[in-house]
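Complex 176.
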Amino acid sequence: MPHVLEPAPSGRAKCRGCGRPIALGELRFGERIPNPFADGETTLWFHTVCAAYKRPEPLLQALEGALSVPEREPLERDARRTLEHRRLPRIDGAERAPSGQAKCRCCKQPIAKGTWRIRLVYFEEGRFTPGGCVHVACRRVYFETDDGLERVLRFSPGLSDEERAELTKAWGEPTG
Ligand SMILES: [Zn+2]
Ligand SMILES: [Zn+2]
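Predicted structure with zinc ion bound:
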């Protein structure tokens, strides 16, 4: 079965990208994958923007086969931009480090308690698996682009407005 682009028939499905519900009637992307637990296939649902950020290849395949998609151009642009940098799909939001124990996947140095770090995930066998963190200051080296703030904010739905403002400020500080 091909991938799916359709208006959500209910508001119950959660997006695999950001974890939030997909609203009734909102265009959603369904990635068809072999069912890891049984015969046949299963569908992973995403907000279209979340798919452009985390699953660009199957989203582009679905867009190719779709007749009329209102947001086609920005979605294609975001998905192609994601494909240009192989590590961008790993962005899974940001948080203040709850301890000083984790090491940065980029510079291998500890991430100090209370400082902002970007969470990474890897898509394997139909699921996103946590894969450590990088310093906000290491993002340009690690992702090979500075095109990440919108993604980080999107995948951090638990942050308050104040925290979002702090993260945005930390993003703007010189990285040395
Ligand atoms: Zn989402
Ligand atoms: Zn680092």
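Residues 95 and 118 are 7 Å apart (CA to CA).
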